[in-house]
Automatic annotation (TrEMBL):
Pfam family, one: Response_reg
Gene Ontology MF term list: DNA binding
Any GO BP annotation: phosphorelay signal transduction system
Modified residues (4-aspartylphosphate): 55
Domain Response regulatory residue range list: 3-119
Keywords: DNA-binding, Phosphoprotein
UniProt name for this protein: DNA-binding response regulator
Species the sequence originates in: Nocardia camponoti
PROSITE patterns reported in the protein's UniProt record: HTH_LUXR_1, RESPONSE_REGULATORY
Superkingdom in the source lineage: Bacteria
Gene behind this protein: liaR
PANTHER family listed in its UniProt record: TWO-COMPONENT RESPONSE REGULATOR (PTHR43214:SF44)
Amino acid sequence: MARVGLVEDHESVAIGLAAMLGPEADLDLVATADSVAGLLAHPEASNGLDLVVLDLRLPDGSTPGDNVTALRERGIEVLVFTGADNAFLVRSAAKAGVLGVLRKSEGVATVVDAVRKAASGEQVVTTDWAAAIDGDPQLSAVGLSPRQEEVLMLYASGEKASRVARLTGLSEQTVNDYLGRIRQKYADAGRPAPTKTDLYKRAVEDGWLPVPERNHRG
């Protein structure tokens, strides 16, 4: 029997998935939490999990990429279960190594089949997952270096260039040079970011900063 965990902060979704998997003799939903850290701390997690069904947007502000990486480092396969339309969040998860991306609006049979396949290590190919790993220019990564990502996250979150320089140990001129290169890379990718607000939007889209609003959840 496959041991399945769920990371989801909507109780109704957790209850729904438990009801879907309950009748399945080969699938056992053994642990549910509202964060990856919470799930990994769950007593059942110590007995091993074959699969984690993962929501994209969580209240702890974690990114899909970091969450998937944390689970994969434990040898746990991941299936994204989302209602989100943000293709960049989907791409972030896909790049980190999920087996598939499944919408919460899918029917019971589709959800159960996807969980069963993912729990056995099979890829679950859907339109959302395929789009996330395609070469679609609108979904393409901008190719920032780790240092540029760090500068972007700090600056886009509200820090001034001088403060970013102090936090990173770079000169203010170097920070400004990095910001110029970052803007150029976004422009080259067809996603211009001429203002600080635009850079904030791009950082959220690409999963480097948490999604601020909680009305339309994934």
